[in-house]
Amino acid sequence: MAWVLKMDEVIESGLVHDFDASLSGIGQELGAGAYSMSDVLALPIFKQEDSSLPLDGETKHPPFQYVMCAATSPAVKLHDETLTYLNQGQSYEIRMLDNRKMGDMPEISGKLVKSIIRVVFHDRRLQYTEHQQLEGWKWNRPGDRLLDLDIPMSVGIIDTRTNPSQLNAVEFLWDPAKRTSAFIQVHCISTEFTPRKHGGEKGVPFRIQVDTFKQNENGEYTDHLHSASCQIKVFKPKGADRKQKTDREKMEKRTAHEKEKYQPSYDTTILTECSPWPDTPTAYVNNSPSPAPTFTSSQPSTCSVPDSNSSSPNHQGDGASQASSEQIQPSATTQETQQWLLKNRFSSYTRLFSNFSGADLLKLTKEDLVQICGAADGIRLYNSLKSRSVRPRLTIYVCQEQPRSTALRGQPPAAGGGGENGSGTPYVYHAIYLEEMVASEVARKLALVFDLPFHRISQVYRQGPTGIHVLVSDQMVQNFQDESCFLFSTVKAENNDGIHIILK
Questions:
Q1: Are 193 and 204 in contact (CB under 8 A)?
Q2: Residues 180, 210: contact at Cβ < 8 Å?
């Protein structure tokens, strides 16, 4: 028995010696001080097992969190992104939460930050053609915006701004230390961007994205802080509720094993972190209008999307009448008042002012409008009601030459003389007001005033010395003298069914 105990001690001591030797070998391979816990945590296996464990110096939570008060769909698989259904035009709250730890980002403590909320396309294919898609939507829905802020319901937002050329974005300032909620309204529906082929097409998904910036050294909000987004689909009013109910009923019919493959439905939607939107905030605020298209016969598409002066197919008249049409008149009927509100981007208030005539609207004071529409839209509506016409950059007077006219042919009458043609009838001139000093603007205004088919105008010429025809270019228009007088005639183009305009 003693011999057996002795053998156990020998075996145990041998195992201890072998274990010590193996440890000493590890120390020799790694070297003194090479073994540390941070190196072990950095190994890939630990990263995959728990990527939420923060390393030294890392921030576990993003600086901000945005929560939209709308339920997620229960019919989304576990590893897919959440999907939220919204009703068109309904106000949804986005809570802007300060998620910083103590001492994080002290440079923004006590200061305002700027956030830009956008509704954009989720599909990459539509992202590439976003400009064309939005222009087509604008043509079908004149005066409307894809995204609006519900100012009266929002809390804590300051200096709200919208850009007329960015119908899908709104921006505002807010204080992270205070309660802030932005109520948004999405006016486009998912099926508006689906090709109509057989009916009942599946709507395209959108994204709601929030980008937040802080001030730089120059006081401009251009330093990016945080971005987050979520996937949505927008339905006609009450459509989102029906779709949510349908998805819930489908999930109830599935087996318990199948339900495990799907995410539960949550009452709110948390926007997940993403890359910032490519457009810089400076480009959004100071977005200059795109250059006017060059007027050539090879680009008939330049008139496919009319501007504010030609949005109505039946709108005719000279530049003066166009300028005056921007002002609402006291004699305007309720229907005309509604049209004016739509044209001036107050579509969200058409129902509110449905029984207002022009006189009723003009009687409202600035304080009344701010109380009714909120600070931002109330001041904008007041300024629109009281604003003066924008002074044109160039004014020219034009008269269409009659084919039978022979007297004074090829030259305008003396200034102030009125002028007469061969039959004694005085020439009647129309004032053309140019906001853009380009040749295409001349052609468009001539077509509008004299009821000419704009798409058939091939070229505009000016009759020069010895009767030569000089092509009217942008540079020539920029050198026109203000209040110049022109006679013009039209001739048929040689190679197509278009027409040429000749200024004399």
A1: yes
A2: no
Buried b (16+ CB within 10 A) or exposed e, 451-475: ebebebbbbbbbbeeeeeeeebebe
Cα 464 to the chain's mean position, in Å? 46
Q: CB of 107 within 8 A of CB of 216?
A: no
Inter-CA distances, 124 with 119, 128, 385, Å: 14, 7, 41
Distance CA 68, CA 93 (A): 6
Mean pLDDT of 201-215: 88
How is residue 402 written in tokens?
């009659």
Greater model confidence, 447 or 30: 447
- The residues facing 232 across adjacent strands are 84, 206
Paired tokens of 485: 């007088």
Q: pLDDT of 11-68, one tens digit each? A: 555 555 555 554 444 444 444 444 444 444 444 434 333 433 444 445 456 889 999 9
- Which residues have C-beta within 8 Å of that of residue 491, sequence separation ≥ 6? 499, 500, 502
* Mean predicted confidence (pLDDT) in 254-270: 89
Phi-psi region of 103 (alpha: psi -120 to 50; beta: other; left: phi over 0): left
Mean per-residue pLDDT of the chain: 74
For 54, residues 6+ apart whose C-beta sits below 8 A from its C-beta are 60
Q: What is the pTM of this model?
A: 0.47
> Angle between the 375-386 and 366-373 helix axes, to the nearest 10 degrees?
140
Here the tokens at position 318 are 């000279």
Question: Percent of the chain, pLDDT > 70?
Answer: 71
CB burial of residue 175 (10 Å; 0-12, 13-18, 19+)? middle
Strand pairing report for 83-87 and 221-235: parallel
Distance CA 453, CA 270 (A): 53
Residues 129, 134: Cα–Cα separation, whole Å: 9
pLDDT for 233: 92
Alpha-carbon span 11 to 19, nearest angstrom: 12
> For the ranges 22-26, 172-176, 193-197, 387-391, which has the lowest average pLDDT?
22-26
CA 354, 358, 363, 365 torsion-angle sign: positive
Q: Do residues 171 and 117 touch, judged by C-beta distance below 8 A?
A: yes
Structure token digits, residue 494: 């040689």
Band the pLDDT of 229: cuts 50, 70, 90.
very high
For residue 232, give the DSSP letter: E
